[in-house]
């Protein structure tokens, strides 16, 4: 039986020195460096956070918000579907009766732990009332203590949308 022996790459003395490979890599680095010095428009690295990205797409799942009726009241009917669907179990709701004609219940408390959230969007998909969305475009949220990441109903209802998305 004819056995074809294939020479193992990188086994020569020159390969084992690594110096030619290092020089080749540095050559590529300096080629890009000198090119970018002459023309900075090709540099794709952004000086974040001084420069903020402007190409956040409409479908980006940012920090949540609770949608509102025209009178400013919440659309949420405290059905717990979002909390049930949430794989991270980071939605906490306390329901109370509602005395207007919009629904039977509303959330007395609605909290999301953003440190536990995995931004999967299941809560948005599960909601039968389009009451929770992740279309704020907010991708960065910083705080100096863990409890500030536990955002409440007040925060979620007044969450500024960074982009002008339609409620329709
Ligand atoms: S995005 Fe996912 S993990 Fe975050 S609150 Fe919604 S369902 Fe839970
Ligand atoms: S946000 Fe939607 S799914 Fe969650 S409790 Fe309110 S109405 Fe139900």
Secondary-structure topology with pairs:
Blueprint: H1 13-17, H2 19-38, E1 65-66, H3 81-85, E2 91-97, E3 105-113, H4 122-126, E4 132-133, E5 150-151, H5 153-157
Antiparallel strand pairs: 1-4, 2-3, 3-5
This protein binds iron/sulfur cluster (2 copies).
- CATH architecture classification of the domain at 65-157: 2-Layer Sandwich
What radius of gyration results from the CA coordinates?
27 Å
Distance between the termini: 72 Å
Write down the overall mean pLDDT.
Answer: 90
CATH topology of the domain at 65-157: Alpha-Beta Plaits
DSSP strand (E) fraction?
5-15%
Write down the secondary-structure element order: HHEHEEHEEH
Uncertain runs with pLDDT below 50, 5 residues or more? 162-168
Biggest sheet strand order reads 2-3-5
Give the overall shape, derived from the CA principal axes.
elongated
The top level CATH class name of the domain at 65-157: Alpha Beta
Structural class: alpha+beta
Largest β sheet strand count, sense and barrel closure? 3 strands, antiparallel
Treating each run of at least 4 consecutive H or I residues as one helix, how many helices?
A: 5
Plain-language structure description:
The strands form two sheets. The chain has a three-stranded antiparallel sheet with strand order 2-3-5. Strands 1-4 form a two-stranded antiparallel ribbon. The model is unreliable at 162-168 (pLDDT under 50). The chain has a domain at 65-157: 2-Layer Sandwich (Alpha-Beta Plaits), CATH 3.30.70.3270. Helices cover 24% and strands 13% of the residues. It is of the alpha+beta class. One iron/sulfur cluster (SF4) binds at residues 85-88, 90-91, 112, 117-123.
């Amino acid at each position: 039986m004819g056995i074809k022996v294939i020479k193992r790459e990188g086994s020569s003395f020159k390969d084992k020195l690594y110096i030619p490979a290092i020089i080749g890599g540095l050559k590529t680095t300096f080629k890009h460096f000198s090119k970018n010095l002459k023309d900075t428009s090709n540099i794709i690295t952004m000086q974040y956070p001084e420069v903020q990205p402007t190409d956040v797409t409409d479908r980006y799942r940012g920090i949540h918000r609770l949608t509102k009726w025209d009178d400013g009241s919440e659309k949420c009917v405290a059905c717990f579907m979002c909390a049930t669907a949430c794989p991270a179990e980071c939605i906490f709701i306390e329901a109370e009766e509602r005395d207007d004609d919009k629904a039977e219940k509303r959330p007395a408390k609605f909290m999301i732990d953003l440190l536990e959230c995995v931004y999967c969007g299941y809560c948005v998909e599960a909601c039968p009332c389009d009451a929770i969305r992740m279309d704020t475009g907010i991708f960065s949220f910083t705080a100096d203590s863990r409890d500030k990441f536990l955002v409440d109903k007040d925060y979620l209802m007044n969450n500024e949308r960074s982009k002008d998305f339609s409620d329709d």
